[in-house]
């Protein structure tokens, strides 16, 4: 699975959009981009995933560049409860092994 | 749906003792994963099962660790003998097979070995 690079930490003002970047320059054609987050002391939580088109759900939007070498997770109106570590993971859907490998992620601190 | 249920939530044990962590996956999920999280190493995948069969245990740190899944609704992770460096939060997750966006994690077991 391709590796990802994320900034270790970011700040965001409450009510503003939080834009979390992820670089995955070695991504393969059959690999998806997944985002999970982990709020302090809880288990990780699925947010969103995509292949090459932009995706949106009730939690967030995912913007993937045309060359697919990077992506951005957008939380449109961040709240204090969005303070968490956000993980960007790249892997092939339905691959030979069904496992997610977590990196170090980005600690997003939403400030009041 | 009660989600993935782990027990106990907290465990404090003395070095050398046997520790057993338990997990009940979501009904219908046929993949189950055990992760360990520490400040130094982050989230590490220890082992995962598919249809109750261990598929990949390459993350199990050493022979002191063992995991079983006797049926679709129950799994255990055992450490014998336990050591202080095993102190961590252990998470269990389940998913429908080959479905990475379907992972659901439990609340974890915080293990402290003194």
Give the low-confidence spans of chain A.
none
Uncertain segments of chain B are none
Helix content of chain A: under 10%
Name the biggest interface.
A-B, 25 and 26 residues
Report the span from N to C terminus of chain B: 36 Å
Could you give the order of strands across the largest sheet of chain A?
Answer: 1-9-8-3-4
Q: Largest beta sheet of chain A, briefly?
A: 5 strands, mixed
Structure class of chain A: mainly beta
Largest sheet of chain B: 7 strands, mixed
For the secondary structure, the number of strands of chain A is 9
Oligomer state of the chains in this structure: heterodimer
What general form of chain A does the structure show? globular
| Overall pLDDT metric of chain B | 93
Radius of gyration of chain A: 13 Å
- How much of the sequence of chain B is in beta strands? over 45%
Secondary-structure element order of chain A, as H and E? EEEEEEEEE
**How would you classify the helix and strand content of chain B by structural class?**
mainly beta
Roughly how many Å is the radius of gyration of chain B? 13 Å
Topology of this protein?
The complex is a heterodimer of chains A (112) and B (114).
Chain A lengths: L8 E5 L4 E6 L7 E8 L6 E6 L4 E2 L4 E4 L5 E6 L8 E9 L13 E6 L1
Chain B lengths: L4 E3 L2 E4 L5 E6 L6 E8 L3 E9 L2 E4 L8 E7 L2 E6 L8 E8 L8 E2 L3 E5 L1
Parallel strand pairs in B: 2-11
Antiparallel strand pairs in B: 1-3, 3-8, 4-5, 4-9, 5-6, 7-8, 9-10, 9-11
């Amino acid at each position: 699975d391709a590796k990802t690079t994320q900034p270790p930490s970011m700040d965001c003002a409450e009510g503003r959009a939080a834009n979390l970047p992820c670089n995955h320059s070695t991504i393969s054609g059959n690999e998806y981009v997944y985002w999970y987050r982990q709020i302090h002391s809880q288990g990780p939580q699925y947010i969103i995933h995509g292949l090459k088109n932009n995706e949106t759900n009730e939690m967030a939007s995912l913007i993937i560049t045309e060359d697919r070498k990077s992506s951005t997770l957008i939380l449109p109106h961040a709240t204090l409860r969005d303070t968490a570590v956000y993980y960007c993971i790249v892997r092939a859907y339905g691959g030979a092994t069904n496992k997610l490998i977590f990196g170090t992620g980005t600690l997003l601190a939403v400030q009041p | 749906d009660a989600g993935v249920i782990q027990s106990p939530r907290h465990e404090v044990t003395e070095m050398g003792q046997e520790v057993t962590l338990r997990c009940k996956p979501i009904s219908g999920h046929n993949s189950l994963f055990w992760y360990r999280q520490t400040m130094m190493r982050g989230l590490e995948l220890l082992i995962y099962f598919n249809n109750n069969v261990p598929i990949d245990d390459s993350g199990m740190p050493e022979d002191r660790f063992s995991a079983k899944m006797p049926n679709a609704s129950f799994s255990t992770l055992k450490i014998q003998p336990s050591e202080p460096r095993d102190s961590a939060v252990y998470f269990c997750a389940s998913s429908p097979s080959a479905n990475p966006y379907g992972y659901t994690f439990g609340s974890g077991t915080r293990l402290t070995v003194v």
